[in-house]
Amino acid sequence: MEALRTAVLGAGSWGTALATLLARNGHQVTMWAMEEDVVQGINQEHRNPLFLNEVELPDRIRATSSMAEAAATAELVLVVVPAQFVRGRMIEVRDVLPRDVPIVICSKGIEQQSLCTMHQVLTEELPGKHHRGICVLSGPSFALEVARNRPTNVTVAGVDDDVVGRVQTAMSAKHFRVYTSQDMIGVELGGSLKNVVAIAAGAADGLELGSNTKAGLITRGLAEIARLAVAMGGQPQTMMGLSGVGDLILTCTGGLSRNRMVGEKLARGLTWPEIKAEMRMVAEGAATSVSVVELAQRHHVDMPIAREVYEVLHQGKSIGAAMETLLARPLKPEWTF
Question: Per-residue pLDDT tens for 10-28?
């Protein structure tokens, strides 16, 4: 495998895990971190003091507080900042991004103001010379498990097969299998919308409603995601893959899921502002719930679970009332698009 100069823009848990993966693959990695103590911790102690501190980082990783420094000479760029900040960061770095390098979006979410997916944000903000390099990575992949070399499967999607193939080669490892796709919108929406369903699943767990309830929420949540993805140009089969049902199952059932944890805390009576105030990491499902309700209205797609999650988080509706609303819905065929 050819060793590449790689920039990882974002030093949260996911960025740290991906930087670790790339360094173990033999690449030289420069991480951009906003926090100076993170930069110092990585460079001096080979640990991220705020995220995944239990993982010792390879020597091939160095950190900087200058995004331009990280990106200027990179041969592969990973974007791993929270979704609502992606546009601003891309504007900051676009003048120094090298030409003809893959730009891999690893952030999951939908921008609230524009309702753009992340690849749409990059297409709008980066010069056209970069557009063929834009691709997205998604799939069932908790950061800690990736950093600990637990077997993981993900999907990378893009419009240029050569670029996607280069990313697949650079990121694949014995314990990290990368599949390819051309369905960028389907892969992005699966990775973004599953966070909303995971909040509902976490609430069901918090209320001890049982396995039947959670299985039903996951399945009907998948139907909602598929309806919107198809309406926006995605492929139905993508929803049956790693970035669809795979990521949905993980996020709705896994103990490391931040979004599932938000649902559990809502069930215990906490409000979203209270939960957010005590969280260090970002639970993207809360912001995405706002965007998905608007997208559903725009595309005339029925998404009742997403709407109830939105109303609980942002309108003060109780978990009990939301459940009653879902249970009282008219009977209908299982699959309708």
Answer: 999 999 999 999 999 999 9
pLDDT greater than 80 at residue 283: no
Contact 218, 248 (CB under 8 A): yes
pLDDT in tens, 116-134: 999 999 999 999 999 999 9
Q: Does residue 335 carry a pLDDT above 80?
A: no
Using alpha carbons only, how large is the chain's radius of gyration in Å? Answer: 19
Distance CA 57, CA 60 (A): 8
Q: E strands within 160-277?
A: 176-181
- Would you kindly state where each structural domain of the chain is located, as residue ranges? 5-182, 194-327
pLDDT digits (tens, 9 = 90+) for 217-237: 999 999 999 999 999 999 999
Neighbours of 47 (CB within 10 A): 17
Collapsing DSSP states into helix, strand and coil, what is residue 266? Answer: helix
pLDDT of residue 253: 96
Which pLDDT belongs to residue 337?
63
Q: How far is CA 50 from CA 39, 54, 81, 86, 324, in A?
A: 11, 10, 15, 21, 40
**Fold of domain 5-182:** Rossmann fold (3.40.50)
Pick 194-327's CATH classification: 1.10.10.10, 3.40.50.1820, 1.10.1040.10, 2.60.120.10.
1.10.1040.10
Scan for tokens 């077997």, then name that residue.
Answer: 151
276 is catalytic: no
Kindly tell me the burial class for residue 181, based on how many C-beta atoms sit within 10 Å of its own C-beta (0-12, 13-18, 19 or more): buried
Catalytic option among 129, 174, 194, 265 = 194
Distances in whole angstroms, Cα of residue 152 to Cα of each of 10, 81, 145, 148, 288:
21, 21, 8, 10, 25
Residues with Cβ within 8 Å of 205's Cβ and at least 6 positions away in sequence, in order, are 214, 260, 263, 264, 267
Does position 207 have pLDDT exceeding 90, yes or no?
yes
Instruction: Report the pLDDT averaged over residues 160-179.
Output: 97
